[in-house]
Inverse folding.
């Protein structure tokens, strides 16, 4: 993390954290597995990361902020693939055995060592600019739905549709480079319910009866995801009198929105009176989560976020990295929502669902 302050555990995790919390959802190995021999799951995931190297290399090559980007991108691809092949031979190399956090961390370390700080910056800026022009339209469509249950469902569908903009998925990066993605078409084309984990009806019922005091939302991607998915949902919470804390990454990773970018986006969306399409934003806070990966270990967040979150009664983790590949089974002292689209076949298989299936996991804590 850039700010040198010490990281702390997220205060709403069920304690003791040591026995109750494990960040990574999918176990790559079990205690009975031979520590020196890679498991089939480890190999499958290492291969997934190997397959993503060409799209990362391509982004790095076109990074105008790095001198000699082409040669350095080549070096990145070489070093990272060597590390991944090492892990296949010896799972205990490079700080292993591997999990999704380590595999992401190694990739970021190599990129940053070579001077690549934000290889997705150009595409993030383009997508943010595009999504900002659509924000009013998306909000108007939601506001026009009078039935509260239907409006909540529409907002949730908007989060899934926005979450498709994920350049960490090799397949989606491919689709995206071909033709971009239409947000409203994506809303219509979600896989039909019931989704692989589908607590939406229970959440809608709770929404009609309960108002939360403060919600913490861990945001995911730039562009449509945060601007057309999360922000209309956050605005609806604000409208109902809930304080909202948006927690964003400290440093760039893939096309995830950063804390500084989110501050800029919200400043652009507010009107002259500081309102978000007519809704007061006095109770909207933006926090630096202290994270620098597309996944998150909640045992280590910034003190700023811990302070802002300490009295929240709803935690929302959005996106495949933060809400499915990590933290799907995380238990909290308050109500929680894990919401994201399944964009890796390996995750779909683990959950017993389809590729591009949706996860909407709501846990209520009875006080």
């Amino acid at each position: 993390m850039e700010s040198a302050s010490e990281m702390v555990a997220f205060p709403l995790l069920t304690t003791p954290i040591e026995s109750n919390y494990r960040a990574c959802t999918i176990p790559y190995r079990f205690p009975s597995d031979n520590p020196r021999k890679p498991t089939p799951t480890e190999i499958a995931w290492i291969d997934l990361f190997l397959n993503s190297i060409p799209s990362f290399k391509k982004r790095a090559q076109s990074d105008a902020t790095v001198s000699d980007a082409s040669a350095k991108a080549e070096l990145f691809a070489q070093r990272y693939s060597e590390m991944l092949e090492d892990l296949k031979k010896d799972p205990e190399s490079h700080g292993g055995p591997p999990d999704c956090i380590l595999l992401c961390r190694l990739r970021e370390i190599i990129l940053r060592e070579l001077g690549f700080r934000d290889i997705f910056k150009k595409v993030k800026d383009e997508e943010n600019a595009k999504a900002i022009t659509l924000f009013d339209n998306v909000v108007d469509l939601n506001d026009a739905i009078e039935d509260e249950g239907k409006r909540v469902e529409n907002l949730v569908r908007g989060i899934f549709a926005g979450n498709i903009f994920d350049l960490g998925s090799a397949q989606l990066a491919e689709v995206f480079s071909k033709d971009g993605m239409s947000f409203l078409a994506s809303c219509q084309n979600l896989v039909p319910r019931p989704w692989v984990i589908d607590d939406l009806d229970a959440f809608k019922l709770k929404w009609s009866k309960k108002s939360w005091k403060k919600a913490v939302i861990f945001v995911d991607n730039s562009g449509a995801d945060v601007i057309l998915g999360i922000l209309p949902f956050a605005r609806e919470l604000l409208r109902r009198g809930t304080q909202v804390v948006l927690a964003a990454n400290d440093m760039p990773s893939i096309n995830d929105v950063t804390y500084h970018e989110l501050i800029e986006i919200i400043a652009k969306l507010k009107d002259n009176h500081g309102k978000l399409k007519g809704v007061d934003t006095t109770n909207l806070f933006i926090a630096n989560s202290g994270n620098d990966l597309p996944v998150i270990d909640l045992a280590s967040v910034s003190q700023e976020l811990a302070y802002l979150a300490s009295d929240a009664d709803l935690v929302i983790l959005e996106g495949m990295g933060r809400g499915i590949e990590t933290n799907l089974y995380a238990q909290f002292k308050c109500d929680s929502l894990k919401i994201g689209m399944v964009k890796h076949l390996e995750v779909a298989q683990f959950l017993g669902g389809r590729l591009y299936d949706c996860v909407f996991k709501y846990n209520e804590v009875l006080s």
Remarks:
- The mean pLDDT is 94.
- The beta strands are 197-198, 214-218, 243-248, 275-276, 279-280, 284-288, 314-318, 335-341, 358-363.
